[in-house]
Write a structure and sequence with these properties.
278 residues, mainly beta, Jelly Rolls, 2 domains, nine-stranded antiparallel β-sheet, seven-stranded antiparallel β-sheet, 24 strands
C-alpha cells in the first residue's frame, strides 16, 4: 500500500480478513505499529474504513474510501491538513521459497569509514561515524542504509547502547527488529527483540544497557527465525507486512539493511550478512 504521490508518497500496510461475524483488519501508517481498524464497510467493490490516529498527529480519525479496480484497491483519505490524499494497494506477494537453501559468502557491512552506507535523510543530523571498526551513532539524527540490497539472508549483529536508548534493524528496509533498553521488562510487541508491532520475542533475552547484545536472524521470504544472546526469540514466524518507518512497501524486491538512528545513541560493533539463494 502506498499513500500520496511523488516525493510526498510513503509506504503503509493494510490487512483485511473476512470472519464469520464480518470484516476485521489491521493498518500500519508511515510510523508506528500495526493497529486494529475501527470500522470496515464493504459493499460490492467499494470499501470504507476508519481508524484512530497513532503517531500521525491528526485531530480527527483517518477515513479511507476506495474501490477495487481489477487487482488494485485505490481511493482517497484525509490528509493532516484536511486535503485528500490518494492511496493505492495491491495484494502482497507470498514470498514462498522452494528447494534447498545455499549459503553464500559472508559480507562484513562495516568497512572503512562509512563506506557502503548512506543517510536516509540527508537534511537530518548525521551523527554516525566508524570508531575502531564499529558504527557509532552519538545522538539522535538520521538512519543509515546500506548501498547493497539483499533478498534472503542470515544477519549477525552485535550492538550496545546507553541507558534509555532505542534503535532498530530494518531487514530489507521493511521489517524492524527492535533494539531497545528495556532489560527486565516482559516481552511485548515493542520490546527488545520484537518484530515491531507484529511479534513479541518468545523470551526477554536482552542484556542491561552498556553490555553488548548479539542477534542472529535468518530471513527467508516472509519467514524469520532469530536468537538473541543465544536464546531463541522467534521460531519460523511469518511476517505479515511492513513495519512503520519502512523505506517502501515493495515486498517482493530485495532491500537494504537500515540501522535506526532517529531515536537515540547506539553502537553497532558487528553487522554481517550471509546471502541465501535457492
Amino acid at each position: 500500500m502506498t499513500q500520496g504521490a511523488g516525493e510526498d508518497s510513503f509506504p503503509s500496510w493494510l490487512e483485511l480478513t473476512e470472519t464469520s461475524i464480518g470484516w476485521e483488519g489491521r493498518y500500519v501508517g508511515i510510523w508506528g505499529s500495526a493497529r486494529p481498524i475501527e470500522r470496515i464497510e464493504i459493499e460490492g467493490e467499494c470499501l470504507v474504513f476508519s481508524l484512530p490516529t497513532q503517531y500521525e498527529g491528526y485531530k480527527v480519525p483517518m477515513v479511507f474510501k476506495g474501490s477495487l479496480q481489477g487487482e488494485v484497491l485505490e481511493g482517497f483519505t484525509n490528509a493532516q491538513d484536511g486535503s485528500e490524499r490518494l492511496w493505492r494497494a495491491v495484494r502482497a506477494p507470498a514470498l514462498v521459497r522452494s528447494g534447498e537453501p545455499k549459503m553464500g559468502e559472508t559480507i562484513n557491512l562495516i568497512g572503512e569509514g562509512m563506506s557502503g552506507w548512506r543517510a536516509r535523510w540527508p537534511i537530518a543530523e548525521f551523527n554516525w561515524s566508524n570508531v575502531e571498526g564499529a558504527l557509532v551513532n552519538s545522538a539522535t539524527g538520521t538512519d543509515i542504509i546500506t548501498e547493497e540490497l539483499f533478498s534472503d539472508f542470515k544477519l549477525v549483529a552485535e550492538y550496545s547502547y546507553p541507558a534509555g536508548s532505542n534503535s532498530g534493524i530494518y531487514l530489507r528496509g521493511r521489517y524492524e527488529f527492535q533494539v531497545l533498553d528495556d532489560y527486565g521488562q516482559p516481552p511485548a510487541m515493542g520490546s527488545a527483540g520484537a518484530i515491531y508491532g507484529f511479534f513479541p520475542p518468545l523470551v526477554s533475552a536482552v542484556k542491561p544497557h552498556g553490555e553488548v547484545n548479539r542477534v542472529e536472524i535468518t530471513l527467508i521470504g516472509r519467514r524469520l527465525t532469530a536468537t538473541l544472546n543465544g536464546q531463541l526469540i522467534h521460531d519460523d514466524v511469518e511476517i505479515p507486512g511492513i513495519t512503520g518507518g519502512a523505506l517502501d512497501s515493495d515486498e517482493g524486491a530485495p532491500g537494504p539493511i537500515l540501522l535506526q538512528g532517529d531515536h537515540g545513541a547506539v553502537t553497532y560493533h558487528k553487522v554481517e550478512v550471509t546471502p541465501i539463494t535457492f
